[in-house]
Amino acid sequence: FSPSVLGTREHWDAAYERELQTFQDIGDTGEIWFGEESMVRIIRWLEKHKVPLDSSVLDIGTGNGVLLVELAKSGYVNLTGIDYSPSAIQLSEKIREKEGMSNIKLKVEDFLAPSAELSGFDICIDKGTFDAISLDPGDAVGKRKLYVGSLGRVLKPEGFFLITSCNWTKEELLNEFREGFEILEELPTPKFCFGGRIGNSVTALVFQRK
């Protein structure tokens, strides 16, 4: 990938500072990455596989935290969101308060250097965070390796990892997560047609930690 400001912390700090101001001004929660259907897809998978409602869930790069709010509305009670942008966590805290979801835990954390207490999760979810890391102008390859290592530390053995990406194909993601993880399922995503070829603009996969 070409390096991009989308891979920098400065970009996301500025973006979430704007969204935080907008929320305070007019109550708009901001952008939902990959749209509403991406959250529905995740929740449907959890429900279909009868994942217990008290399973510990980590949202990696939670942003505005709206996915966690939707999980809480679906009955999940052990929810944690992390983001390396303090403005993102401030925004998600305000949205959590507005929605009355006091049981959602939110922390400023860099997933590439997680604190010791960030461990033992049954489920980890990523909507676009691995994508952003992949665009980091400073050593994206090294940071992707750090990401996979962190995932192996925070996710329990046999825990599930649900990733949604617009930058990576299924085959590429299988290669990125080949050490320590195995593919369980590819989730259906919107398809597009161009020049007679059908493809997916978004890839959504479920891995299980070995």
From TrEMBL:
It catalyses: L-lysyl-[protein] + 3 S-adenosyl-L-methionine = N(6),N(6),N(6)-trimethyl-L-lysyl-[protein] + 3 S-adenosyl-L-homocysteine + 3 H(+). Residues 56-185 form the Methyltransferase domain. GO terms for cellular component: cytoplasm. Keywords: Cytoplasm, Methyltransferase, Nucleus, S-adenosyl-L-methionine, Transferase. The keyword Methyltransferase applies. InterPro entries: Efm4/METTL10 (IPR026635), Methyltranfer_dom (IPR025714), SAM-dependent_MTases_sf (IPR029063). Gene3D superfamilies: Vaccinia Virus protein VP39. One of its GO terms (molecular function) is protein-lysine N-methyltransferase activity. It holds the Pfam family Methyltransf_31. One of its GO terms (biological process) is methylation. HAMAP family: Methyltr_EFM4. This is EFMT2 methyltransferase. It comes from Urocynchramus pylzowi.
